[in-house]
Amino acid sequence: MTERKYTAPALEKGLDILDLLAQHGQAMTLSQISVALGRSVGELFRMIHVLEFKGFIEATPSGDGYQLTNRLFTLGMARAPVKNLLEAALPPMRDLAADVEQSCHLAIASRDEIVVVARIENPGYFGYSVRTGHRRPIVEASSGMVLYAFQPEAIQTRWHGEIFSGVDEAARTRFLADAAQVAKQGYWRAESDLTPGVVDISAPVIVDGAAVAALTMPYMARKGARPVDAAIEHLRATARLISSEILGVS
Q1: Cβ-Cβ contacts under 8 Å for 188 (sequence gap 6 or more)
Q2: Which part of the chain is the HTH iclR-type domain (predicted)?
Q3: CA 111, CA 23: separation in Å to the nearest integer?
Q4: For position 19, which CATH number holds?
Q5: For residue 3, is it within any domain?
Q6: CA-CA distance, 65 to 59, in Å (whole number)?
Q7: Which whole-number Å values give the CA distances from 185 to 37, 141, 203, 233, in the listed order?
Q8: Measuring CA to CA, which residue among 42, 39, 52 is closest to residue 13?
Q9: In whole angstroms, what is the distance from residue 71 CA to residue 107 CA?
Q10: Is 1 within a domain?
Q11: Of 57, 74, 91, which residue sits at a domain end?
Q12: CA-based angle 62:66:69, to the nearest 5?
């Protein structure tokens, strides 16, 4: 851990507000933020308005509090590694969606969550997709399963403290057993626990022996659709192609 040499109280207040809104997942009033952070309303009032002026937070349309904007997400997407990932991934993802006639998305790890950084809609009439910017705990997401399963053991161990915080022992044991199986078979396939009738299939984008992203398809069976096993093979081939393309644009 980096040794702390200096303090910047105003900056820390602003970062605390952003962290709180991100973790809470929904709008909060100034009073709620005050209570959660243990600071007075007067102490936070100016900081809230500065963050709003700078575009990091916004008042909800109903006026019942403040919520994060996509500003932080946009800044993160501008980082060179993510830009290289997207440059490599988007053309093959478009081909995959067109070939299989299913939507697909790309997710990366962000602390104890996955975040979707790109998606391609099914070009046909029917489909199901996950919005860009969507977040979910690693231990609850198909993309998270793949991202964890294809990390070196040292990285997996380092993740444990964050991703298993608040997870009961039975769920932890089940996740680790599934991850071991995923590492052997090279992909993950599971019925969606969010959307009935959708099968989540996911494969790793691997660079230098570790998954830098997970390519995931919420597969919907319908008349004329490719069988799920064929979709899995297309998905895995596309993930391998993205992996090789990343090395070409790095």
Answers
A1: 142, 145, 146, 149, 178, 182, 200, 201, 202, 203
A2: 8-70
A3: 12
A4: 1.10.10.10
A5: no
A6: 6
A7: 45, 18, 10, 12
A8: 39
A9: 18
A10: no
A11: 74
A12: 105
**CA–CA gap between residue 194 and residue 25 (Å, rounded):** 17
The verdict on residue 29 lying in a domain is yes
Tokens standing for 242?
């993205």
Q: List, as one string, the DSSP characters of 118-165.
A: EEE--SSS------TT-EEEGGG-HHHHHHHHTS-HHHHHHHHHHHTT
The model's pTM: 0.71
- The token pair at 178 is 């599934």
Domain hosting residue 227, numbered range: 79-249
74, 97, 112 - which closes a domain: 74
| CA 200 – CA 193 distance, rounded (Å) | 9
Query: Looking at the 3D structure of the chain, how many domains does it have?
Result: 2
Q: Does residue 212 sit within a domain?
A: yes
d(CA 38, CA 36): 6
Query: Nearest CA to 94 among 68, 119, 67?
Result: 119
Coil, strand, or helix at residue 207?
strand
What is the full per-residue pLDDT of the chain (250 aa) written as tens digits?
A: 456 666 778 888 888 888 888 777 678 998 999 999 988 888 888 899 899 888 888 888 887 888 887 676 556 555 545 558 888 899 999 999 999 999 999 999 988 899 898 999 988 766 677 888 888 999 999 999 999 999 999 899 989 988 998 899 999 999 999 999 999 999 999 998 888 889 999 999 998 889 999 999 999 988 778 899 999 999 999 999 999 988 664 4
